[in-house]
C-alpha cells in the first residue's frame, strides 16, 4: 500500500472507531447523514469516557461542529479521540473524523467536536471519577 504523503495533516489523538459508511446511512441527498456521523462520534468518545470513568457514563454536551466535506457511501470513516480534560465527575473528549475511500491513500478531515460525559452510578446519578 502506498505511504501517505507526509505533507498531509495527521489526525490528532488515538484511533477509537473505524466504520464503513453504508447505503442505509444516507440522507435524502445521497450523502452520509450528519446524524449518523454524530452517532459514530458519540460511540467513539463514549468508549474513552467509560474507560476513564471506570464505568457507566452519559453524554452531557457536544460542542459546535461544522462539516467540511460530505462522506460518500463506501468511505472508511475513522474517529480519533483526544482527552481534553478529566474533572471530578466529567470527561471532555475532542474528536476528529477523517474519511477516505478504500482505494485512496489520501484521507480527508470531515469534522471535529468536543463531547462532554459525566460518570453515573446504577441509579443514573452523577458520581465522582476515581483516578
Automatic annotation (TrEMBL):
Signal peptide: none annotated. Residues 11-123 form the HotDog ACOT-type domain. It is an enzyme of class 3 (hydrolase). Transmembrane segments: none annotated. Its EC number is 3.1.2.20. One of its GO terms (molecular function) is fatty acyl-CoA hydrolase activity. Keywords: Hydrolase. Belongs to the acyl coenzyme A hydrolase family. This is Acyl-CoA thioesterase. It comes from Reinekea marina. The lineage of its organism: Bacteria, Pseudomonadati, Pseudomonadota, Gammaproteobacteria, Oceanospirillales.
